[in-house]
Structure formats: C-alpha cells, structure tokens
Amino acid sequence: MLRPATLVDLPVLRALIRDGAVAGGVDRQGAGDSSEAKQLFANLREALATGYFVEKDPHSGGLATIAVPGYVYLPDDDGMSDRPAGFGLFRAAAVGYELWLTGVDPKRREQGPPMLTALLKTPPGQKAYIVRVGAAVRESPAMVHLLLSSGYTRARETPQYTWYLRNDAPEAVSRQLLPQQTRVAAR
C-alpha cells in the first residue's frame, strides 16, 4: 500500500538514503555532512512539508519551484507495516514527471518490484516519462531490469547517470529533455 509521504516520514527516508549511500545503494551525495547532502535533505524536508522545493535553474541561473510528490510504501503482508519498506519521490519535469529518488529498506529488498509497480500507478507515476538511475549505484542492474520490464528504454548516459524514457512518452519529452546528441540506441 502506498500513502503520501509527509514530514513525519523524514527520519525514515533520511535513514534509508544515508544507509543506501554508505552501502553504495544510492548516490553517495546522500552520505555524510557534505554541502550536497545538506542541500538534498533541505530539499527533501521542504518537499515533504509543502510538496515543492526551490532549486537553481541550471539554464537561466534563476530559482525554479519544483513540484515533488512523494509516497511511502507499506506492504500489507510483511508483518512490519508500521515502518515503510521504501519510498519514491517524483519531481516535475518540463512535461510530466521524473521518478527522482527511491529507496527500499535493505532487509526488505523483495518489496522493490511491487513498490515500483505501485509508484508507477499513482497520478504522477502515470506521467513519469523519465527515470534517472545512478551509474555507480550497486542496485542499478536490478532497477534497470524493473524499468525495462515496465516499458522504459535507455535514452541518455553521462558518467554519473543513465536516463530511461518511457516508451509512450510524448515526443515533447524526448525533444525537450533529451537533446538529439545525447540520445542513445536502446539496448
């Protein structure tokens, strides 16, 4: 079962992100007390409190307000339903949403596939045309497998990330978010 993430969930999300960063399960920026980690958690706090955060627009240099709906996953059948097994956060993109950040309790990894399926059925999930996966993340192969089986195709790569585009994404998403020179052939 999914429920909207709120500020009450911040300690659980913070712990999942930090544990995942230390173990190599999520981007290392979530570990420690670096300026990147502080910014990530400030944005996360703001998103959970208001549904939005403000960040610097890399193109204009101005500030942009970004909608960030999020959910926590509480499986019905694992006997630990009082603590979320994981979470997923979306961020508004030029068209639709990007599945921006996810995490699953390492002791409950088997909940990853049903959580992703549930996330993609939410209103923002139905418009989640883009998913960004960290290149150095230990769980990337498992996430990639889930994405490919959910109708996504590899679309863009950098040394840090690989972006996946949902097969039914509007052409505007591909044009605006994935410039021609960065598109890659599907594998």
Describe the SSE topology:
Elements: E1 2-4, H1 10-23, H2 35-50, E2 52-56, E3 63-67, E4 70-73, E5 86-92, E6 97-104, H3 112-121, H4 123-126, E7 128-134, H5 140-149, E8 152-157, E9 161-166, H6 171-177
Parallel strand pairs: 6-7
Antiparallel strand pairs: 1-4, 2-3, 4-5, 5-6, 7-9, 8-9
What's the quick description here?
The protein is of the alpha+beta class and 187 residues long. It contains 6 helices and 9 strands. The chain has one domain (2-182): 3-Layer(aba) Sandwich (Aminopeptidase).
Give the tally of β-strands: 9
Characterize the main sheet. Answer: 7 strands, mixed
What separation lies between the terminal Cα atoms? 33 Å
Q: Give the SSE string.
A: EHHEEEEEHHEHEEH
Would you identify the regions where 5 or more consecutive residues have pLDDT less than 50?
181-187
Q: How many domains comprise the coordinates?
A: 1
- So how many helices? 6
Level-1 CATH class name: Alpha Beta
User: How would the global form be characterised?
Assistant: globular
Structural class: alpha+beta
The helix content, as a percent range, equals 25-40%
> What is the CATH topology assignment?
Aminopeptidase
The average pLDDT is 82
